Amino acid sequence: MDQSTTGTADLLVDKDSVYNLVATFIILLGGDKSFANNLCGLFIEYLNKGCTYQDIHSEILTSFYYKKDFRWALFNNPKKDEYNKNLLTHGTRYYHKELKVISAPPTINRDVDSGVITSRVENYFLEPVASYTIQEFANYFYKNVPIDLQAWPMKKTLGMLKYKINQYGIDKLLFMTDIVAEEYKSNGSKFSIARWDDYSYIADETITNIKYTFSDDEPYYTLKQRRLFDGNT
């Protein structure tokens, strides 16, 4: 919470970073810089127990809209089913784009009447997502992989993905999924688990290249977090 540039919260998104959770809480429910820093650590603790961004974000909005106290006890011992609990461990470095939140690109607008062109540039940031679940991965998988839905209904797919995550880890498996999708685009190959396993070494090479090829100032792979308060607050 103490790097980079001052930013704002998007109050309605269903996937974002810990920063956005803290910013949303402070904007809607109040708190100073010291409280925000403590809140960041507390939310990370909840997320590492299996809570998700959606769980905490929903409770913040509920507290605000219904003028109720935030129910901290909900997150001390979360009861989550295995497919909707957070897979990520904060402090671990993840490299796949699905596990990152990045600032929006510049937008350019042209006034039809005057011809005046204006642009809006958001301060650059790159942050890890607060949480990621097997269900979210299943949605990504269905969206990107050519799969027979009759052969692979959701319940069966969730079980298969859980097994594969235990085998490879979520970060590597996301890269392996992208390779399957690219092969389909190239030659129309359909999904097979055996072929999917063959891509393990390619995913390892991709992650290694990301770790060691790009310099520290390479923007896409270097985390840069927003600041909730500026240096004078």
Describe this structure in words.
The protein has 233 residues and is mainly alpha-helical. The protein has a domain at 137-213. It is 45% helix and 6% strand. The chain is built from eight helices and four strands. The strands form two sheets. It has a two-stranded antiparallel ribbon. The longest helix has 18 residues, at 170-187. Mean pLDDT is 83; it is low at 1-7.
Topology:
Elements (H helix, E strand, L loop, with lengths): L17 H12 L3 H16 L4 H13 L34 E3 L4 E4 L6 E4 L5 E3 L5 H11 L9 H15 L1 H18 L5 H6 L1 H14 L20
Antiparallel strand pairs: 1-4, 2-3
Helix pairs in contact: 1-2, 1-3, 4-5, 5-6, 6-8
Number of continuous helical runs: 8
Low-confidence segments, given as residue ranges, are 1-7
Helix/sheet category: mainly alpha
Helix % is 40-55%
* Gross morphology: globular
Radius of gyration in whole Å, from Cα?
A: 20 Å
Mean pLDDT: 83
Number of E-state strands? 4
Strand content: 5-15%
Widest sheet, order of strands? 1-4
In sequence order, what are the helices and strands, one letter per element?
Answer: HHHEEEEHHHHH
Quote the distance from N terminus to C terminus.
13 Å
Sheet bearing the most strands, described?
2 strands, antiparallel
**Assembly context of the chains:** single chain
